[in-house]
Amino acid sequence: MADDERMTKGEREDLQRLIRQREKVLKSAAKQRSADLLADFENQISAQYSFDDDAVWAAAEKAAAVEVRKAQERVSARCEELGIPRQFAPSLNLYWSARGYENSVGKRRTELRLAAKAQVAALEQKAIVAIEMASVEAQTQLAVAGLTSEAARAFFDNLPAVDSLMPSLSYQEIAGESDVPIVEQMLTPNALRQRRYRERQKALRDADVTLPEPMKEERQ
After folding, report:
1. Is this model's pTM higher than 0.90 or not?
2. How many Cα atoms sit within 13 Å of 95 on the Cβ side?
3. How far, in Å, CA of 52 to CA of 109, rounded?
4. Any bridge partners for residue 148, and if so which?
5. pLDDT (tens digit, 9 = 90+) per residue, 17-45?
6. Integer Cα distance of 166 and 182 in angstroms
Protein backbone atom coordinates (compact mmCIF):
# COMPACT_ATOMS: atom_id res chain seq x y z
CA MET A 1 0.00 0.00 0.00
CA ALA A 2 1.57 3.28 -1.09
CA ASP A 3 1.92 6.06 1.48
CA ASP A 4 0.02 8.52 -0.70
CA GLU A 5 -2.97 6.12 -0.68
CA ARG A 6 -3.30 6.28 3.10
CA MET A 7 -5.57 8.82 4.69
CA THR A 8 -4.19 11.72 6.60
CA LYS A 9 -4.89 12.05 10.31
CA GLY A 10 -7.44 14.75 9.57
CA GLU A 11 -9.23 12.54 7.06
CA ARG A 12 -9.38 9.67 9.55
CA GLU A 13 -10.78 11.92 12.27
CA ASP A 14 -13.40 13.31 9.88
CA LEU A 15 -14.47 9.85 8.87
CA GLN A 16 -14.57 8.63 12.48
CA ARG A 17 -16.88 11.51 13.34
CA LEU A 18 -19.02 10.63 10.34
CA ILE A 19 -19.20 6.98 11.40
CA ARG A 20 -20.23 7.98 14.94
CA GLN A 21 -22.89 10.27 13.49
CA ARG A 22 -24.11 7.45 11.28
CA GLU A 23 -24.25 5.18 14.33
CA LYS A 24 -26.39 7.73 16.17
CA VAL A 25 -28.72 8.09 13.20
CA LEU A 26 -29.06 4.32 12.83
CA LYS A 27 -29.95 3.96 16.51
CA SER A 28 -32.65 6.59 16.10
CA ALA A 29 -33.83 4.77 12.98
CA ALA A 30 -34.04 1.54 14.99
CA LYS A 31 -36.38 3.20 17.50
CA GLN A 32 -38.51 4.53 14.66
CA ARG A 33 -38.48 1.10 13.06
CA SER A 34 -39.85 -0.35 16.31
CA ALA A 35 -42.76 2.08 16.20
CA ASP A 36 -43.38 1.24 12.52
CA LEU A 37 -43.33 -2.50 13.18
CA LEU A 38 -45.84 -2.19 16.02
CA ALA A 39 -48.08 0.02 13.90
CA ASP A 40 -47.95 -2.49 11.05
CA PHE A 41 -48.78 -5.36 13.42
CA GLU A 42 -51.67 -3.36 14.88
CA ASN A 43 -53.02 -2.93 11.35
CA GLN A 44 -52.79 -6.69 10.83
CA ILE A 45 -54.73 -7.64 13.97
CA SER A 46 -57.28 -4.83 13.50
CA ALA A 47 -57.97 -5.47 9.82
CA GLN A 48 -61.57 -6.04 8.73
CA TYR A 49 -62.57 -7.45 5.36
CA SER A 50 -65.83 -6.98 3.51
CA PHE A 51 -67.12 -9.74 1.25
CA ASP A 52 -67.10 -7.35 -1.70
CA ASP A 53 -63.41 -6.53 -1.25
CA ASP A 54 -62.61 -9.49 -3.45
CA ALA A 55 -64.35 -10.88 -6.52
CA VAL A 56 -64.07 -14.50 -5.34
CA TRP A 57 -65.50 -13.60 -1.90
CA ALA A 58 -68.35 -11.68 -3.53
CA ALA A 59 -69.23 -14.62 -5.79
CA ALA A 60 -69.12 -17.04 -2.86
CA GLU A 61 -71.37 -14.80 -0.76
CA LYS A 62 -73.85 -14.45 -3.59
CA ALA A 63 -74.03 -18.22 -4.14
CA ALA A 64 -74.36 -18.88 -0.41
CA ALA A 65 -77.15 -16.30 -0.11
CA VAL A 66 -79.18 -18.13 -2.77
CA GLU A 67 -78.88 -21.44 -0.91
CA VAL A 68 -79.68 -19.85 2.45
CA ARG A 69 -82.87 -18.33 1.01
CA LYS A 70 -83.93 -21.75 -0.26
CA ALA A 71 -83.21 -23.31 3.11
CA GLN A 72 -85.15 -20.56 4.90
CA GLU A 73 -88.14 -21.23 2.70
CA ARG A 74 -88.09 -24.87 3.84
CA VAL A 75 -87.75 -23.79 7.48
CA SER A 76 -90.69 -21.38 7.13
CA ALA A 77 -92.82 -24.04 5.47
CA ARG A 78 -92.12 -26.50 8.25
CA CYS A 79 -92.90 -23.89 10.91
CA GLU A 80 -96.25 -23.31 9.25
CA GLU A 81 -96.94 -27.05 9.29
CA LEU A 82 -96.11 -27.15 12.99
CA GLY A 83 -98.35 -24.20 13.72
CA ILE A 84 -95.56 -21.93 14.89
CA PRO A 85 -96.56 -18.24 14.57
CA ARG A 86 -94.40 -16.31 12.15
CA GLN A 87 -93.28 -13.87 14.84
CA PHE A 88 -92.01 -16.80 16.94
CA ALA A 89 -90.54 -18.87 14.13
CA PRO A 90 -86.82 -19.60 13.99
CA SER A 91 -84.86 -18.31 11.04
CA LEU A 92 -81.81 -19.27 9.07
CA ASN A 93 -79.47 -16.44 8.13
CA LEU A 94 -76.20 -15.84 6.34
CA TYR A 95 -73.68 -13.40 7.71
CA TRP A 96 -70.13 -12.45 6.78
CA SER A 97 -67.58 -12.17 9.60
CA ALA A 98 -65.20 -9.33 8.80
CA ARG A 99 -62.61 -10.71 11.22
CA GLY A 100 -61.32 -14.10 12.29
CA TYR A 101 -61.58 -15.37 15.84
CA GLU A 102 -57.94 -14.55 16.61
CA ASN A 103 -58.36 -10.83 16.00
CA SER A 104 -62.02 -10.42 16.93
CA VAL A 105 -61.65 -11.16 20.66
CA GLY A 106 -60.30 -8.21 22.63
CA LYS A 107 -58.44 -10.34 25.17
CA ARG A 108 -56.66 -12.25 22.42
CA ARG A 109 -55.65 -9.03 20.66
CA THR A 110 -54.18 -7.80 23.95
CA GLU A 111 -52.12 -10.99 24.24
CA LEU A 112 -50.87 -10.56 20.68
CA ARG A 113 -49.93 -6.92 21.28
CA LEU A 114 -47.89 -7.87 24.36
CA ALA A 115 -46.11 -10.59 22.42
CA ALA A 116 -45.43 -8.22 19.53
CA LYS A 117 -44.02 -5.54 21.84
CA ALA A 118 -41.69 -8.08 23.45
CA GLN A 119 -40.54 -9.30 20.04
CA VAL A 120 -39.94 -5.77 18.74
CA ALA A 121 -38.01 -4.78 21.88
CA ALA A 122 -35.74 -7.79 21.38
CA LEU A 123 -35.23 -6.93 17.70
CA GLU A 124 -34.41 -3.32 18.54
CA GLN A 125 -31.84 -4.31 21.17
CA LYS A 126 -30.25 -6.78 18.78
CA ALA A 127 -30.11 -4.12 16.06
CA ILE A 128 -28.50 -1.57 18.38
CA VAL A 129 -25.81 -4.05 19.40
CA ALA A 130 -25.10 -4.86 15.75
CA ILE A 131 -24.89 -1.15 14.87
CA GLU A 132 -22.50 -0.45 17.74
CA MET A 133 -20.30 -3.42 16.84
CA ALA A 134 -20.13 -2.36 13.19
CA SER A 135 -19.30 1.21 14.19
CA VAL A 136 -16.54 0.13 16.59
CA GLU A 137 -15.09 -2.20 13.95
CA ALA A 138 -15.00 0.57 11.38
CA GLN A 139 -13.40 3.04 13.81
CA THR A 140 -10.86 0.42 14.91
CA GLN A 141 -9.83 -0.26 11.35
CA LEU A 142 -9.44 3.45 10.73
CA ALA A 143 -7.34 4.03 13.83
CA VAL A 144 -5.17 0.90 13.70
CA ALA A 145 -4.97 -0.41 10.18
CA GLY A 146 -4.41 2.88 8.39
CA LEU A 147 -6.91 2.14 5.67
CA THR A 148 -7.00 3.83 2.32
CA SER A 149 -9.81 6.26 1.68
CA GLU A 150 -11.51 3.73 -0.62
CA ALA A 151 -11.41 0.95 1.99
CA ALA A 152 -12.65 3.28 4.71
CA ARG A 153 -15.60 4.32 2.60
CA ALA A 154 -16.39 0.64 2.08
CA PHE A 155 -16.54 0.16 5.87
CA PHE A 156 -18.75 3.19 6.15
CA ASP A 157 -21.10 1.94 3.44
CA ASN A 158 -21.26 -1.50 5.05
CA LEU A 159 -22.77 -0.29 8.31
CA PRO A 160 -25.93 -2.44 8.61
CA ALA A 161 -29.29 -1.20 7.40
CA VAL A 162 -31.96 -1.05 10.09
CA ASP A 163 -34.57 -2.80 7.92
CA SER A 164 -32.28 -5.81 7.52
CA LEU A 165 -31.67 -5.96 11.28
CA MET A 166 -35.35 -5.55 12.17
CA PRO A 167 -37.54 -7.45 9.68
CA SER A 168 -41.31 -7.11 9.69
CA LEU A 169 -43.26 -9.13 12.24
CA SER A 170 -45.02 -12.28 11.10
CA TYR A 171 -48.58 -12.61 12.39
CA GLN A 172 -48.29 -16.40 12.10
CA GLU A 173 -45.19 -16.39 14.29
CA ILE A 174 -46.74 -14.14 16.92
CA ALA A 175 -50.16 -15.82 16.86
CA GLY A 176 -48.84 -19.35 17.13
CA GLU A 177 -48.29 -21.03 13.77
CA SER A 178 -44.75 -22.01 14.81
CA ASP A 179 -44.03 -25.04 17.05
CA VAL A 180 -43.58 -22.83 20.12
CA PRO A 181 -45.68 -19.66 19.68
CA ILE A 182 -44.29 -16.47 21.19
CA VAL A 183 -47.57 -15.96 23.08
CA GLU A 184 -47.13 -19.34 24.76
CA GLN A 185 -43.54 -18.50 25.66
CA MET A 186 -44.93 -15.59 27.71
CA LEU A 187 -47.41 -17.76 29.66
CA THR A 188 -46.60 -19.33 33.00
CA PRO A 189 -45.94 -23.10 32.85
CA ASN A 190 -49.16 -23.88 34.70
CA ALA A 191 -51.26 -21.63 32.45
CA LEU A 192 -49.66 -23.23 29.42
CA ARG A 193 -50.48 -26.74 30.69
CA GLN A 194 -54.07 -25.71 31.36
CA ARG A 195 -54.38 -24.27 27.88
CA ARG A 196 -52.96 -27.36 26.19
CA TYR A 197 -55.15 -29.60 28.36
CA ARG A 198 -58.27 -27.78 27.15
CA GLU A 199 -57.11 -28.12 23.55
CA ARG A 200 -56.57 -31.87 23.95
CA GLN A 201 -59.95 -32.30 25.65
CA LYS A 202 -61.63 -30.55 22.75
CA ALA A 203 -59.82 -32.74 20.21
CA LEU A 204 -60.73 -35.96 22.05
CA ARG A 205 -64.30 -35.06 23.00
CA ASP A 206 -65.84 -36.83 20.01
CA ALA A 207 -63.94 -40.00 20.92
CA ASP A 208 -65.41 -39.92 24.44
CA VAL A 209 -61.95 -39.84 26.00
CA THR A 210 -61.32 -37.87 29.18
CA LEU A 211 -57.85 -36.70 30.09
CA PRO A 212 -56.78 -36.37 33.73
CA GLU A 213 -56.61 -32.85 35.07
CA PRO A 214 -53.10 -31.38 34.78
CA MET A 215 -51.33 -31.04 38.12
CA LYS A 216 -51.11 -27.52 39.37
CA GLU A 217 -47.75 -26.10 40.35
CA GLU A 218 -46.91 -26.69 43.98
CA ARG A 219 -46.72 -23.59 46.05
CA GLN A 220 -43.23 -22.67 47.12
Report:
1. no
2. 6
3. 25
4. 6
5. 888 888 898 899 999 999 999 998 888 88
6. 17
